[in-house]
Design a protein that fits this description.
Layout (H helix, E strand, L loop, with lengths): L1 H17 L19 H9 L6 H4 L20 H4 L2 H10 L33 H11 L5
Length: 141
Amino acid sequence: MRFAAALVAAGCAMSAASGAAGAQDSIPASLTGAKGDPSRGRAIVTNRQLGLCLLCHSGPFPEEPFQGNLAPDLAGAGKRSTEGQLRLRIADSSRINPATIMPAYHRTDGLTRVAPVWRDKPILTAEQIEDVVAFLTTLKD
């Protein structure tokens, strides 16, 4: 877990150091070194106990009632954002917007008001992050 969190920080630092356009807003490399599974990613996105994505987001999930309207619609996420941009937004969106209300799904340091059972534990594993990224990249419409 700590290794993947270090990869998030290192990826952001390397992207920022590269100076490439848009580089500061992404983690280009997989946190696990492998592609995720889109079907597992969809299950995480729609799971109301694990991902909780639909608490704030809506998307192309007609079978899911009561979708959120606080955050961007997930439809077209794979068209609007690169794989690396999606990875950073899920792992730690506060690196893009420090005032975000989106949870840092893979960051464990510098957090406040964390229940003792969750301290030093990411919400999603690196593999789960990659699964969600793989799913969101399929959402082109």
